[in-house]
Amino acid sequence: MFSKSIVAFVAVVAVAVSGVVAKPITRPAADLSRRGNAVQSSSAPSFNNYMNLPSMANFDQFFGQNNFDSSQNQQTVVEQQTEVVCQTQAIEVVQQKLVVLMEVAKKIVLQQVCEVEVQTVVVQQFSSVVSSFGSAVSRQSKQQPAYDQNIAGMLSQVMNSDGSLSTGNLGFSGSNVGSNAVSVGGSNWNDASSPASVQMAKGSAQQAAQAANSSSAQSQSSSQNQTSASASAAPASAAASAAASASASAPASASASAPAAASASASAPASQSQAVSQSQAASQSQSASQSQSSS
Known about the structure:
It is a single chain. This protein is mostly helical. The protein contains eight helices and four strands, in the order H-E-H-H-E-H-H-E-H-H-E-H. The strands form two sheets. Strands 1-2 form a two-stranded antiparallel ribbon. The protein has a two-stranded antiparallel sheet with strand order 3-4.
């Protein structure tokens, strides 16, 4: 269900910057047999029953095992009674619409997928499909830069009138995307100069993205370092407080002991002097007794 909604959003990206779609008058026959063979014969990893998660039971059946990014889809451009041409809007308006689509995509991932492993896979698929469209825009793909008018027309079915997400099956497969493609004219593409200018623009955009990622990584690392430093500082602070407390109590003990020691020192000479006096008195008394005996 989620993958189907994702394709609808990707297709609508082109609608955000294009004109009104005219009624098709012809539909060239598509070689659908080629599509099936190209999609299924592959050495690409299968995500069916990935990690034994029930929600991944039929993942590969949507786009195909070798068609993770939908780049192998057969594209059939539908002729329009009136040519559809791009109509330049303020870039802020375009960015607003794309952000709305992106936030709805986030809502789908978070509300309709509960396993983080599945969330990871479908987000990577979403990113890959958008990247594949980017290759078509820069004329580096076998596909034309176009959108599927049938899939884009299902946008209103993705959400209910109260803003909640619908849960019904939209009734198409990923391999159907491109069967009713509309090519939009009016761009400034020039076969001589555009390949180089588009490559330059792509390189600048990638550089900006890398700089943003680097800044985010540095900010996260700094936050982690501050957290670690705070955790380390707590025991050190406790030890310092204990040491300060011990130092404060030591002088007090020493001060209390000092008078006692001084008193002991002062009493020691007095005791010694008293002992000497008593000894002298005893000697004198003994001498006097001896003198009387002699007489």
